[in-house]
Specification:
Layout lengths: L1 E6 L6 H8 L18 E6 L3 H10 L4 E2 L2 E6 L14 H9 L3 E7 L15 H31 L4 H16 L14 H8 L9 E6 L10 H12 L3 E5 L1 H7 L4 H11 L5 H12 L2 E7 L4 E7 L4 H8 L1 H5 L1 E7 L1 H7 L2 H6 L4 E3 L10 E6 L2
Parallel strand pairs: 1-4, 1-5, 3-9, 5-6, 6-7
Antiparallel strand pairs: 2-4, 8-9, 10-11, 10-12
Amino acid sequence: MLRAGIVGLPNVGKSTLFNALTSSNNAQSANFPFCTIEPNIGVVSVPDERLEILKKLVKTDTVIPTAIEFVDIAGLVKGASKGEGLGNQFLHNIREVDSIIQVVRCFDDVNTIHVSGKINPLDDIETINTELALADMASLEKRIERLAKQAKTGDKQAVLEHKVYTKLNELLSDATFINIEEHFEEDELEVARNSQLMCIKPVIYAANVSETDLAKGNAYVDTVREYAAKHGADVVVISAKIEAELAELSPDEAKAYLSDLGVTSSGIERMVQSVYKLLDLTTFITAGEKEVHAWTVKTGSKAPKAAGVIHTDFEKGFIRAEVTSYKDFVEAGSYTVARDRGLTRLEGKDYVIQDGDIVHFRFNV
């Protein structure tokens, strides 16, 4: 399952957002730093209206959407990389996620204390990014020293890793997230990807605003967008307070509330979509009387790899995939009609899975 870590300074709205994401009150929310003592974990279904439509067509009672696991990590502060606050304990948790959602405070509220005493989104971003970079550099320095000795023996893998880690260490001096595809050759990318560094993970900046600024943003949001654009990151404008209120409403009530606020979708929906876009993911579907089930693969994955997401035996014994596009299936109304109309295709090992493909895998164990 995909994991997204929610990070940020204390009192920026992280735990409030997490509660809304998971429609729960698992993450304690309080007006002081370090109220989250253990990382909270919640699983969030990815909204996909196609699943309910397919549910009716195949006449099943069970729908299993794809999901993202969100990890609410305690507020970081300056010096976290050296153990300040609850630093080291939580830096470890960030290393284990696939993407990072950095919540940035973009609202004024005299009743909510800011850890640095003033509202400055860019300072907040710099503090978080610096701490992550410093922690990554400390990790790399030990590896570089060890690999330097191995590289002297002529070990080709050690030479390659030493080269990649040294370059990563230099890039980290800018204290920003690194797009490794821009800096490394193909043979170096795998080493970089496997480095377990926090600063190479895809990042989304969640600009947390007040209710009145949700539709159009504000000057704080503009500075975050400008920063993100320069560093190839995405920005989602959210109001953690509004999201918490939406979590208490029915779908129809929530839709009406959002309309009153001048927006068409919740921040959570936009955040989940942003995670999918950032991680370059594609959804395919299996549908039958037993269940309608959404599955996630990397965009560009071939049919055997998609089969392996369901079960490793499916990939090992892959024969072919029976594929119907979502649009064609809905228009046909059933598998029988889709096959009769020639809308269902048999695809082999080189077929690249497309978003919304409804697939039945044939395999031999």
